[in-house]
Amino acid sequence: MPLALLALAVGAFGIGTTEFVMMGLLPDVADDLHLAIPTAGHLVSAYALGVVIGAPLLAALTARLSRRHVLIGLMALFVAGNALSAFAPGYDSLLAARFLSGLPHGAFFGVGAVVATGMVAPERKARSVSLMFLGLTVANIAGVPVATLMGQHLGWRATFLGVSAIGLAAIASLALLIPHDRAAAPTTGLRGELAALRSVPVWLALGTTVAGFGALFAAYSYITPMLTEAAGFAEGNVTLLLALFGVGATAGNLLGGRLADHSLRGTLFGGLVSLALVLLLFPVLMRAEWSAALSVALLGMAAFVTGSPLQLMVMEKAATAPSLASSANQAAFNLANAGGAWIGGLALAAGFGPTSPAPAGAGLAVLGLGVAGVAWAVDRRHEVAHEGRVVATHVPDQAGVLHH
């Protein structure tokens, strides 16, 4: 695999760290700025909102530019957002800085996926995307725990300075390792880029992302009370258990990339079925500590097996605007984060018990499987129609002359 994928992974590591570290820093930030925890929680939402808005917007606006320069520029914006977070004097300025930090997130992964697949043979495209996402999953194993500890011992502002330093390392890696574009990125203009999103298969692929990863976040958003109230773990052990989720996610990401190069849709279906089964088994697995720990790793693995196939599928369905569609998939991922957490919260609020968000998530996984099935049926219909047209234009006349 090209060494340039390492530069993309370094950027993904920084982005993954800053996205998830806020969950661990909320008590420290709330205490320092004299906020209630729910108010401080809006800092998580501000970042997600930045991703949803920035992903398609920045991808569309930079479509005519060199992808190498776009990646470097996006990472520079990322560094600026995190540096401003570190020096934010109050809540409102920190809220704005977190929103700014989220803006380049989706576009970086979107453009990065196009660059990654463009550097490898067609039969290795999914694997190249999974290697870029490796930085995101490894962030959950190493980046987030280390950044959280840094914030707890040196102050939360030090964490954001540390993440800014990772961003600077990513900029240097991108400048050194990403090859110069032979030509400007092909584009049909902003209107043409947006027109690519009118495709039904593209929206079905995005819908699969929202439902499939919504299933993950329905359970993962409430994994701490599951582990403490149902499995009986002490709160001090939760950080180590969340690292197990990162290990599972990393393994699933690599496995999904390898399998998807052989069967894109088969890997997607298999991942969603596995995710639904793991979530359905959660209430049983949470009855003992060893099985609860196993379930956390299996959740990460089953969910992230689908990551590379979904990213690649969206890009293929919007071939005229792969950067925009790929970035929109990152926005869909963050919508899944918000929607899944909301649905899991409904199950808890209804009084169904601490593990109830998991079966609710299983329902979302089944919904994702249904959307993926509809997408497969639409593709089959298009293929049959295309084959019919090809046959019809190659029918010989009565004299035996073949017309084209």
Report on this structure.
The protein is mostly helical and 404 residues long. The protein folds into two domains: 1-184, MFS general substrate transporter like domains (Growth Hormone, Chain: A, Up-down Bundle), CATH 1.20.1250.20; 187-391, Growth Hormone, Chain: A (Up-down Bundle). The protein contains 16 helices and no strands. The protein has helices spanning 4-33, 37-40, 42-61, 67-86, 91-118, 125-154, 156-177, 189-195, 200-220, 223-230, 238-260, 264-285, 289-304, 307-317, 322-349, 357-392. It is globular and about 55 Å long.
Q: What is the top-level CATH class of the largest domain?
A: Mainly Alpha
CATH fold type of the largest domain: Growth Hormone, Chain: A
**Gyration radius over CA:** 22 Å
Q: Could you say what the CATH architecture of the largest domain is?
A: Up-down Bundle
Which of globular, elongated, flat, extended, rod-shaped describes the shape?
Answer: globular
- What structural category do the secondary elements indicate? mainly alpha
The biggest sheet amounts to: none
Number of domains: 2
The total count of helices amounts to 16
Average pLDDT score = 85
Low-confidence stretches: 390-404
Task: Give a brief outline of the structure.
The protein is mostly helical. The chain has two domains: 1-184, Growth Hormone, Chain: A (Up-down Bundle), CATH 1.20.1250.20; 187-391, MFS general substrate transporter like domains (Growth Hormone, Chain: A, Up-down Bundle).
